[in-house]
Amino acid sequence: MPNKIIVTADSTCDLTPELLQKYGIRTIPLHINYNDTSHYDNVDITPSDIYNKFDETGELPKTASISIGEYKDFFEPFINDGYEIIHLNIGSGLSACYQNAMILSKQIPELHPFDSRNLSTGTGLIAIKAVELAKEGKKVEEILPLLEDYSSRIHGSFILDRLNFLAAGGRCSSLVALGANLLKLKPCIEISYDDHGTMTVGKKFRGKYVATFKEYIDYKLSLFEGIIPDKVYFTHAGLKDEDVSEIVEYIKEKNIFSEVFVCTACCTISSHCGPYTAGIFFITEK
Prior knowledge:
Low-confidence stretches: 169-180
Strand content: 15-25%
Helix content: 40-55%
Order of helices and strands: EHEEEHEHEHEHHEHHEEHEHEHE
Shape: globular
Distance between the termini: 34 Å
């Protein structure tokens, strides 16, 4: 009898509806909270709503993790149907989601939370890999160590166009943000696997966004040998369609990847980084 395994993820996995449907991945949203209202990420609020409100009022929402009770309600139908659950969380260095899922797993042995040590489509890549391994007939205890190896080989980063969202959220000073904006600096934010998904500032680029992003692509791809060429994820927040098309065409012209998937960042990611944030996520052999 085949294993009954279902793969779930937080809304921060940033996979397109088509990819979620193709791989049967179910998601549960994080919270997007303003002073007077609470929303579910990408359910009753969109990144555009956040950008518009910030432009009008200067106000940013607070993001909140999924509670233990919410997780219990979400997982219960799958458990009642006889499934074991592999749940992918945003990196534990960024949110309490993983810790809350782990607390619940002490009560529910069928639940297996996995700390992606990543964010956005970095987490999505791991979710897809988990589905593929389950379809091969592997058991949960075989899948989890394979995911540990796989997640350590994911390389994710992104470029910020402006720092005023980070400044408004208290993640950098207004003076630093102003200086970076005046100098047209575009910092590369690196995602650290070793620090459970926390972010550090890497190389800084300068210039107009699309030209800068092309330079960033060249730089990131030059750093690694053994890039697995089957797919790359280009994930963005608030880019214009024509800029997305130009960047995707540039990635294709590199003749490295057989498929380029375009994904949109969720509200949780967008509220911290702001519009015109984008990055690439890919895998290496080692």
